[in-house]
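Deliverable D5.2: sample structural annotation.
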Amino acid sequence: TSGRAKIVLVLVWVYGGLVCAPPLLGWNAYHFSQSSWTCGMKNFVGDEPGKEYFLFYFFTSFPLPLLIVTFSYSRIFIQALGVYRRRERRLSKSRSFRNQQISSSSTNFLPAPSTTCASTGTCTGG
């Protein structure tokens, strides 16, 4: 529904903001390298490596979105499969109903068998 879509859209933006906010708040901040004229993440905060931030960033940027996308697409697949199966059931019922109608109506158009037979046992059609 459109209400769910709006909620998911807001959640995606909030999630993106939360993932990007820690460096802006000082946790493993961005660093400008004058030698290469590029910005990047500081690998060390003081003397301690910034492993906590890299683990946070990894899990919030890859496995968690992967799980969410996998769950979402599996739900879509299950719904689509259900629609397909319902449609197939409806079509098969419709086909069998038409086949019954055709077989019952086709017997009305068949000529009646000839009942006049000679004494020899051979029947003559008429």
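Annotation notes: The helical segments are 2-24, 51-61, 63-109. The chain is about 65% helix and 10% strand.
The annotation will be released with the project's public dataset once the embargo ends.
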